[in-house]
Structure formats: C-alpha cells, structure tokens
Amino acid sequence: MPGEIAGTREIMHWIAHELGPDTYVNLAPQYYPAGKVSDKEHAEINRCLTHKEFQLALEAASDAGYAQQGDTAKAKLAYQDVLATLKNADADRPLVQNRVAYFAS
After folding, report:
1. How many alpha carbons fall within 13 Å on the CB side of residue 46?
2. pTM across the whole model
3. How far apart are CA 89 and CA 96, in angstroms?
C-alpha cells in the first residue's frame, strides 16, 4: 500500500516467523485506488505505489529471509512490454502517468 501503511515489513516478519520461511509470498506493485478512495476520502492511499515503495517491500521480504525466485530476466522483459503498452495509452490519465514513471525507473 502507498506510504507503507499496510505494515509490509511487520507482515513479512510475522509470516516468516509464525508460518515459516518456506511459506510462499507474492509481492506485486499492482495496487490501484478505487471505490471510496478519493482526494477527499482516504487521500493517503489515493495513488499507486512508487518504485521506491515497491523496492522497500522487496527489501522487507528479503530482510525477513525470503529470496526472489523465478526468471528475473523474463520479468524485466515483461515490464518493458508494459511500458511500451503504456506509451500508447491515454497520457492524461493519472494512473497511466504513475505507471509510466514507475516502470521507467
């Protein structure tokens, strides 16, 4: 969640120590504000994650003992595909602007 309000570090620590470090955990930077979230209500989460926030979540998982698995080269190619798609999207939409900035960093 934006601003680390979900307590990712604490959650990763709890899962690793209470359920065990072999418990599978999936972290993804896909949070999208919707529903009752607006500039007037729940403004602190009325945005997508930044690249830095997602990196902090990955660091929290690593610090708790988790290691990244999978084909990271393939994942990077997938991110490049997403960025290419976003370049053709409606650039005036805040979500598109946020994702372009995220994937470009």
Report:
1. 11
2. 0.64
3. 7
